[in-house]
Predict the 3D structure of the following.
Amino acid sequence: MFVTGASGAGKTTLLKLLFRDEEPSEGQIVIAGQNVTRLKRRGVARLRQRMGLVFQEIKFLPDMTTIDNVALAGLVAGVPRRESYRKALGLLRELGLEEKYDAGPLTLSGGEQQRVAIARALMNDPMLVLADEPTGNLDKELAEETMKIFLKIRQRGTTLMIASHNLALSQRYGTRIISLQHGCLIGDWERVKEGRR
Amino acid sequence: MALFVFGAFMVAEENLQSLFRKWGDQLQLNAYLDKALSPAQITLLQDRIQSFPEVERVHYISREQAWKDFRAALGPQSNVLEGLPEDVLPPSFEIFVKPFHRDSPLVEALASRLRKEKAVTAVEYPQESVDRLSLGILIVEWAKWAVGAILFVVTFFIVGSVVRLGIAARKDEIEIMQWVGASEELIQAPFVIEGIIQGIIGASLSLLCLWTLWLLLLDQLSIPFGLFGSPLQFIDWRDIALVVAMGGLLGASGSLFSLRRFMKTWRG
């Protein structure tokens, strides 16, 4: 699913509301049948463990290696250390970064860093991956590469919500596109086999 | 600084308490007796006073003994007593008070009872000194906690500001931990531990400075305290542990407070 709109439309805010980085002023947010609006701190932490977050501004713990940064998500969720690192290595291999596992993440290229961020987001088999302008800092080729990775994620059954102002990308890859303007929903398109509805 | 000042008050209080206990051990009343009393009457009176619940023991000083003690106290100047009769001084009782009856009001009450005895002509005891020392200790204790509380609050906010700078420098780290679903306790733990360590180090440095100052001033302060027969002492291990624990608590609470405010602010 793509969330589109001009800058300031509310795309990032919507994502932040979903992982409870923002508090709604009214109403409720229901994810997988759970009203997440009323979650306390511990509940919010557990919710985020079931989600994967990928942002345009990629951040890593600079004093840790690539695999440490990826495994962190598992360790925080209580996955045993050996299991976390085994899974982290598997994800890096899947994303073509196996040989860079012990490199400092900041020494990697932009595209490689984005893939590390995606690996971290996938560590706990999330039900939902939220990506805010994941291709914003990437060139066309890397953007396409990233979108292919996201397609693979979707094929696993994970719901993907990507906020992007790149209409071409959304029209090419989006199965559902919602459009925002000034914080309001102005459009909701779902791709069907015969054509766009 | 706060812990240094607090520790200084603790040292002062400890030594004043020691002096008070020492004076208390030596707390005695002097009851001067009618010169015309017979030995039997003196013995009866002594037994009656000994039976008072506040009294630990009674020591009789005869006129001759009083004269001897007076001459000894004058030392080389005792020749001024030449020509005076040796029975000029009255006999007296040295009355030693039991430890738990050494409060000023109780001692005053005992003195009043003694004054009512017909054979007792006068009663003396160091009431003013005891009262002043008792008040002095109370003032030091209140000042210790009042100044300590103020300094603690001020230091708490200073520590908080310093910690906030450290937290701001590690903003990205906190953000990443929140993204991957780390609990607040897991995020806070390293900062709190850091705060505790810094607090303990700060407290240790304060105690070291206090100890150094103590050693420098020991000689000067020993003279006046020595005159009262109370040797000076530094705070004991329990108080040292208390100061160190307060340092740790200060560091931990400052970190926790700042971190929670930072995270609340940052979340918007």
